[in-house]
Amino acid sequence: MSTQNNQPHPYVGMWVTKDGYIRHELLQNGRYDEARGDRKSAYQGKYTIVGDHIEYLDDTGFTADGDFRDSVLYHAGMVLYREK
């Protein structure tokens, strides 16, 4: 996912729960890859961002959404922080 000037969207990158168990990577190409514990690529699919809202469509057909607020991603009951 890119902005109009071909720069990566500001939310692209790795988002992680405080305990590090869930690692949610938003890729520049509009896809995501979520790891859970030792299970790499537990979930994968597409995402779209409009403003501070994100919509997910998992490759299995599952849908979810979330919101970015104050540099935190709130997604499906989880709180994820931008990995530095």
The topology string of helices and strands comes to EEEEEEEE
What would CATH call the architecture? Beta Barrel
- State the domain count: 1
- Give the percentage of residues in beta strands: over 45%
From the 3D structure, determine the CATH topology: Lipocalin
Strands in their spatial order, largest beta sheet: 1-2-3-4-5-6-7-8
Provide mean pLDDT, rounded: 93
Helix vs. strand class: mainly beta
Question: Level of helix content?
Answer: under 10%
Radius of gyration: 12 Å
**Terminal-residue CA separation:** 19 Å
Main β sheet profile: 8 strands, antiparallel, barrel
What's the β-strand tally?
8
- 3D shape: globular
- Under CATH, the homologous superfamily reads Uncharacterised protein family Atu4866
How would you describe this protein?
The chain is mainly beta. It has a single domain (13-82), classed as Uncharacterised protein family Atu4866 (Lipocalin, Beta Barrel), CATH 2.40.128.290. 0% of the residues lie in helices and 60% in strands. It contains no helices and 8 strands. It has strands spanning 13-17, 22-26, 31-36, 39-50, 53-58, 63-69, 72-75, 78-82. An 8-stranded antiparallel barrel has the order 1-2-3-4-5-6-7-8. Strand 1 and strand 2 (22-26) form a beta hairpin. The radius of gyration is 12 Å and the shape is globular.
